[in-house]
Amino acid sequence: MVTATRKEIIKVAGTMFEIEVFHLSDDEFDRMRFSRKIKVELFNGMITWVATAEDVIVQKLRWLKTAARSKDYDDVINVMKRKGERLDFEYITQWCNQHGTLEILAIARAEAST
Questions:
Q1: Among residues 3, 21, 44, 50, which is most buried (max CB within 10 A)?
Q2: SS3 category, 3
Q3: pLDDT at residue 1, rounded to an integer
Q4: Which of 98, 88, 26 is CA-nearest to residue 57?
């Protein structure tokens, strides 16, 4: 419900591992996020595509604004701490400005830098 799009959950038999697959919507940011995806190698040479750290932050802040789930905020802080200054904050700020999440971004950024 928070994502405003359909989601499929794939459970890997014999494990606690789950994969969430979100359907692409007509939302401008959703389409941009999809176009910016990056290829990563997991384990045993397995290749997959994932959202950039910047797009994860923007989306999590967007969800946080509507659903106020502490997990989304924690995820934002963790991504910021892990990626640090390598993040494109100009890009993040542009989208947060559009989505009305600049204040939350500023709070999260201050917390992540401590």
A1: 3
A2: coil
A3: 43
A4: 88
The pLDDT tens digits for 54-98 are 999 999 999 999 888 899 999 999 999 999 889 999 999 999 999
Alpha carbons 69 and 63: distance in angstroms, whole number: 8
Confidence (pLDDT) at 2: 45
Domain ranges within the chain, ordered by starting residue: 7-112
Gap between the Cα atoms of 26 and 48, Å rounded = 23
* Residue 26 backbone class (left: φ over 0; alpha: ψ -120 to 50; beta: rest): alpha
Would you call 82 exposed, middle or buried from its count of C-beta atoms within 10 A (0-12, 13-18, 19+)?
exposed
- What is the pairing mode between strands 18-22 and 38-41? unpaired
- The residue with greater pLDDT, 97 or 3, is 97
User: pTM for this structure?
Assistant: 0.83
